[in-house]
Design a protein that fits this description.
The protein has about 625 residues and is of the alpha/beta class. The protein has 26 helices and 24 strands. It folds into 6 domains: about 90 residues, Rossmann fold; about 70 residues, 3-Layer(aba) Sandwich (Rossmann fold); about 90 residues, 2-Layer Sandwich (Beta-Lactamase); about 170 residues, 3-Layer(aba) Sandwich (Rossmann fold), CATH 3.40.50.300; about 60 residues, Helicase, Ruva Protein, domain 3 (Orthogonal Bundle), CATH 1.10.8; about 45 residues, Homeodomain-like (Arc Repressor Mutant, subunit A, Orthogonal Bundle). Helix 24 crosses helix 25. The protein is rod-shaped, with a radius of gyration of 47 Å.
Length: about 625
């Protein structure tokens, strides 16, 4: 930061150079008196000088000129005054002080001390100096004491005068003060620059006003939102500039005004206004403006990057194997559904690959960049399922996380939520799900605030929902809301030609995992194709995985496959019989009110046989 010393005469110029050279050599030294000093000061300011050190009238003249420069005045010390008065005594005892007031503050008290008659003739500008010098001599002064201008006027009238010289002490003091000022201004510039950088690069619009309601800050985002440029805003009354903002109300009340929604052209703006309080008084106010669409975009990004972590669809239509007409038609229809935003209901038996189709539809849709959230409605109790789907606030129920938790509908925002086994959802939760689908908003448990969500719903079931609707086991309104686009996944028995394709695919995967080289013989593939596969693709995959573990190197024969399927059928039959027999025993015991003898008679078996079967069932 540039500092310059402006000496009013050659004597001070010489003194300043001598005094400042050792420790303040970076201060430039120039000659300039009064109005002439102002001319020099203008040139210095134009060259980058920000602080000028000078004294008396020159300092006053530069301040009056309104230059963009700070002025540090060289003080006249008590030693300077004593030295000047002591010199003046040589001309007589009546001494007139003719000077600017800042130069001779406190000089009158020296009269009694030094045994002289001191009189003040103070002037405010150089143009008053002539009259004051003449009046002093007219009043009987023997000598005048003052600055350069006083000495020059006295010399022109051939009258004695003593110059009040600034000693080394005053010059050093002024230089150090200028350095302190420069450092303070540098720190202030850093703060101002930081403040401006923050405001200029903020995502929100910022408008601030002073205590009179005049605009002091109008950052670029505020300009973009309002369409008003900064030059047209700064210094204007905010009430005239933008009356709808009502920022003057905050100045008047000294209270926050949060959450105001404004409409500017085609934009919806969220506005928060707060007062600036200094020492208990309202010194101004600040308005923060946020484009609602930007807030929504930021929410979407947060949901996608934080909440939706791990909710990704891995399968695509390339993972749907087979080339039979029935599966090709199913894939073609699913691709057509993917291009829409409508709800999809996927129907199919257990193990047909309903989630594979759900993920493929998501990845083939415009929502592919968003999250894919899968929920098994049969895996969770109804109370837990509700909190998982819709979220909850802290303290909503015993065991709830302190800060609450977003629901899976929020997590799936701008993406897809897959509700598997939708038929297992209880009726109260169905009602809440219906409201979300209708209103496209969720309300967390324990909260009264609604959260907008943009989610596509894909539901799946292996049950006949229409029959459940007729039996009042499933809400009809929810069924029709979900059943906009219906996709039926064919079971393996309807696409027998695709069974070998899946079998070879699974064998290659699991044999590689087991470190074995295995292939199916044509006969083995025929045996696999002849099996009904009630568990569909999932059952076929499990069976092939067992084959890859049990069989050794080489080919997998039809005999090996037949044995594996026979074991599979026997196990399935045994399980079926066991489960049904267990159910019959439970019914008999209930009918006999827990009396084992009566229950055994109902079942046509002895009491000991009943005990043996109960023991076997309980040990499973």
């Amino acid at each position: 930061m540039g500092i310059a010393f402006l000496a009013p005469d050659e004597s001070m110029l010489t003194t300043a150079r001598k005094v400042l050279a050792p420790s303040h050599g970076d201060i430039a030294i120039h000659l300039g008196l009064l109005s002439g000093g102002v001319t020099v000061a203008k040139e210095l300011v134009a060259g980058g000088t920000e602080i000028i050190v000078t004294r008396g009238g020159t300092a006053a003249a530069i301040r009056s000129a309104g230059l963009a420069v700070s002025v540090v005045e060289v003080p006249i010390t008590g030693f300077d005054l004593i030295r000047a008065v002591a010199k003046a005594r040589a001309y007589g005892g009546r001494i007139a002080v003719v000077a600017f007031p800042s130069m001779v503050f406190g000089i009158s008290c020296l009269g009694p001390i030094l045994g002289v008659d001191l009189r003040d003739y103070i002037f405010g500008s150089e143009f008053e100096a002539e009259a004051n010098v003449q009046r002093a001599f007219a009043d009987g002064a023997d000598v005048v004491v003052g600055g350069v201008i006083t000495v020059k006027i006295a010399a022109r009238h051939s009258r004695p005068a003593v110059f009040i010289e600034s000693g080394a002490e005053g010059i050093i003091q002024a230089a150090e003060e200028a350095k302190r000022l420069a450092h303070a201004r540098k720190l202030e510039k850093v703060k101002t620059g930081l403040f401006k950088t923050v405001l200029d690069n903020a995502y929100e619009g910022v408008i601030s006003v002073d205590h009179d309601g005049r605009v002091t800050v109008f950052n670029p985002v505020a300009q973009r939102i309002t369409g008003i440029g900064e030059p047209a805003a700064i210094g204007r009354s905010i009430t005239e500039l933008w009356p709808q903002l009502r920022l003057a109300d905050v100045l008047r009340t000294g209270r926050d005004d949060l959450g105001q929604l404004l409409r500017i052209k085609d934009k919806r703006i969220l506005c928060n206004k707060i007062p600036i309080i200094v020492s208990g008084q309202t010194a101004g106010a600040v308005a923060n403006l946020q484009d609602v669409s930007k807030i929504q975009q930021m929410e979407e990004r947060i949901r996608r990057e934080i909440y939706a972590s791990g909710h990704v669809a891995a399968f695509t239509f390339d993972d749907v194997l087979g080339n039979t007409p029935v599966i090709e038609n199913t894939v073609r229809m699913a691709k057509d559904f993917a291009a829409t935003q409508s709800a999809v209901l996927i129907l199919g038996e257990t193990g047909t690959g309903k989630e594979v189709f759900a993920q493929s539809i998501h990845n083939y849709s415009p929502r592919a960049g968003g999250p894919f959230v899968a929920v098994n409605c049969a895996a969770l109790p109804s109370q837990i399922l509700e909190s998982e789907l819709f979220g909850y606030v802290g303290g909503a129920f015993t065991g709830a996380a302190k800060g609450g938790r977003p629901g899976l509908f929020e997590v799936a925002h701008r993406g897809t939520i897959f509700l598997d086994e939708i038929a297992e959802m209880d009726l109260p939760t169905q009602g809440k799900l219906l409201r979300v689908l209708q209103e496209k908003k969720v309300m967390r448990l324990g909260s009264d605030k609604v959260i907008p969500v943009d989610v596509r719903v894909i539901a799946a079931t292996n049950r006949t929902l229409k029959q459940m609707v007729a039996e009042n086991a499933f809400r009809a309104d929810l069924y029709y809301r979900l059943n906009v686009l219906r996709l039926r996944i064919p079971p393996l028995r309807e696409r027998v030609a695709d069974i070998p394709v899946y079998a070879r695919h699974f064998l290659a995967r699991y044999a590689a995992t087991a470190g074995r080289g295995l292939t199916f013989t044509p006969g083995a593939l025929s045996v696999l194709a002849s099996y009904p596969w009630p568990g569909n693709i999932r059952e076929l995959e499990n069976t092939v995985e067992r084959i890859a573990v049990v069989c050794r190197e080489g080919t997998v024969t039809d005999a090996a496959v037949a044995q594996m399927l026979a074991d599979e059928q026997e196990s399935a039959i045994q399980t079926f019989v066991r489960e049904n027999e267990s159910e019959e025993i439970k019914k008999a015991l209930a009918a006999a009110r827990g009396k084992y003898g009566e229950a055994a008679k109902m079942l046509g078996m002895s009491r000991s046989t009943l005990w043996r079967k109960l023991k076997k069932f309980s040990g499973r």
